[in-house]
Specification:
399 residues; globular; 44% helix; homodimer; Nucleotidyltransferase, domain 5; alpha/beta
């Protein structure tokens, strides 16, 4: 709107600063002349903005670029290790911490285990303790931190910025952002876990040049983070992406949501593992699963599948078929450029990707499915913590 | 981006003109002072823009508003009957035409029947003949037309602006926009039929203040038009909204798309009518459907349902249940503010709305479903033609 353009110079300057930073981020290195050409800003305005950004430690001058005639230009780049962000992924039995600088380079990654059922208060204390321990030992100063991102396995309300419900944590109505912000002394932003993974894919992963994509996380639940028009899509009140309750079988298995036949009951790792262990309890054995083997863990089941066990492969493939149903509906409905599957899915992707792609091709309309790229995340279980750390970083680039 | 703000005054002026027009559209009537306050434009800039808009016939001065102290201000409104747009909905056996002015007031509406299987060439000739006949008899001049919108029951490619496939018309790869534009001598825009209905709901219907909503059309097929962030959502290549092929029954009925158990095979009016007539053929009768009655038409079947016929009610209700499954997935995945159901659905909405809402409540997650409004369109079969006419109109308001 015109108001922003003519009425508020400070706002405009901040917008232009973010635009300058984002251009340098995308192009990696730019001269002041190239910046002025690309932004349409006057050389004076460009000079003033870059001077401030250098002074504040966001940019630095780095050697000289190619000359296009006269003097070789000085090049500008994002300054590494000047400002940091911290991201936390709050899982059912583990807190993952990531510290990254504004170039999105990962400084460190740590995991801290806890027992399921942990209270929000204890998680906040753990975040505070582990954060300050870590920056002390790394000799980082808090005033170098631009903010904190928090990945939550649950539904958030964008208006109140609270956690509405996080079933796997048994948390309701928690104002985690405010409390962590106070504990760490920096801005803190909460975000749904699958959306954090989508942010990770968009900022540093396979979807960095993709405007419309869906990131699907397979874990004990199944959720999606959606990007539309190069922006996070959260929906009317912030709960978009809950794809795990698509009914894939009428009158199918009972689900925790109260319905029957939900995608999660066939394709989440919790339910797939239950299926496998139930058959083992009933006496199933194979070359990979010897008689008398007790209940398998997830990684044992995946290993058995890689070792050719039929049951484990069958269950994983059946899960992939049902994920294919959901993906097909998403392809038909949203016509995305890419679908990226991650978290536990990366553990067994090589075993089921053919089945999944075949199902998606078969169950989607020909035109949209011919346009979509099916991808596997390269970040495995770390995508949400990485994405959480990127939330404050994105903000300085105006995203 | 900064470029637009500082580098291109003509572009900026057009943006400001559109913003001024859109504000007046939304507020119905505004003084120059109110406009300057709301836009942040200087009184001089505001005066210059409104002067041009009055000269060009988009605005007019209308009496005097409430004084807030000094002289009573002159008020500005959109000028009715100054510029028009024409919309065509190309159906399987009928062309619907709508002419509206820039205030979105409908000047006339006409329907022209034809036989199924009509060629694109014949439809273009019909559009040309009927348009010129009509404006001659209405004494309208073509230079008062800002453009034409075309509603197409098929998949479009936004890059080539062509129809990829329109199954019910048996058209492939038709460049209808270009050809109609040449035939009528004005810009012509093609748009998917369900998206045209969504545009209608957003511009003049129940969703005019709703940023995120989904408009679902039930006809011989089932499709959706999606608005996200107050804008049309088309997806990566323009085919978003094809919800009719959600698999609601594994290994269910065969569908024209090659799959089995698609939503359309249970809930489209074509299939519901087939179900009813098959039972009648097998001897079904009731108080509303006497023995010996032949195959029913759609409107006879709906009448029978209103007259209490059990079979017709059962089939319509079953269709509504399956639509409920699709709506529930859309609610979980996109967390929209509203779902509006239209086209043939308006014929029987009073009979099934309870069943539909009950299913959606049952099959969705509690939080997003508590936020969604379930609506029925007020435009019936006319929503696509009306929406098509709104496409060129929206453009002068910068949409």
């Amino acid at each position: 709107m015109a108001k922003k353009i003519t009425g508020n110079n400070q706002y405009l300057k901040e917008l232009n600063k973010a635009a300058v930073l984002d251009l340098i981020r995308q192009k990696k290195t730019l001269s002041r002349k190239e910046l002025a050409d690309l932004t349409g800003l006057s050389p004076t305005a460009c000079g003033s903005i870059t001077r401030e950004l250098i002074k504040d430690g966001f940019l630095y001058e780095t050697g000289q670029g190619e000359s296009t005639g006269g003097r070789k230009p000085v090049m500008l780049e994002l300054k590494p290790n000047s400002y940091y962000a911290v991201g936390f992924d709050i899982g059912m039995n583990e807190l993952k911490m990531v510290i990254a600088d504004i170039t999105a380079s990962i400084l460190l990654q740590r995991n801290f285990e806890y027992s399921p059922g942990i209270s929000a208060e204890k998680v906040i204390a753990l975040i505070r303790d582990k954060f300050f321990e870590t920056i002390d030992s790394e000799k980082l100063s808090t005033d170098k931190f631009i903010g904190c991102g928090l990945s939550i396995p649950g539904i958030l309300d964008r208006n109140t910025n609270k956690i509405i419900i996080a079933p796997n944590l048994s948390w309701n109505e928690v104002d985690l952002g405010t409390e962590v912000s106070e504990a760490l002394g920096m801005p803190a932003f909460i975000e749904n876990e699958a959306m954090c993974s989508a942010i990770c894919e968009h900022w540093i992963g396979k979807c960095s040049n993709i405007e419309n994509f869906i990131c699907i996380n397979i874990e004990s639940g199944i959720g999606a983070g959606i990007f539309i028009g190069d922006s996070i899509y959260r929906g009317y009140t912030g709960s978009a992406g809950e794809i795990g309750h698509l009914i894939v079988r009428e009158n199918g298995r009972p689900c925790g949501c109260g319905n029957r036949g939900c995608l999660e009951t066939y394709a989440s790792i919790r339910h797939m593992l239950e299926d496998i262990n139930e058959r083992i309890r009933k006496g199933y054995s194979s070359d990979a699963i010897k008689p008398g083997t007790g209940a398998l863990t997830w990684s044992q089941a995946v290993d058995a599948a890689y070792n050719g066990d039929e049951l484990c492969n069958e269950v994983l493939r059946k899960g992939a078929v049902y994920i294919g149903y959901a993906v097909a509906f998403l392809v038909n409905t949203l016509n995305p450029e890419a679908i990226v599957l991650g978290k536990c899915f990366t553990d067994y992707a090589p075993l089921v990707m053919d089945t999944l792609v075949e199902t998606v091709n078969e169950k989607s309309l020909k035109y949209p499915v011919s346009k979509v790229r099916m991808l596997t995340s390269e970040f495995g279980m770390n995508s949400s913590a990485l994405g959480a750390a990127m939330i404050p970083i994105r903000k300085i680039f105006g995203k």
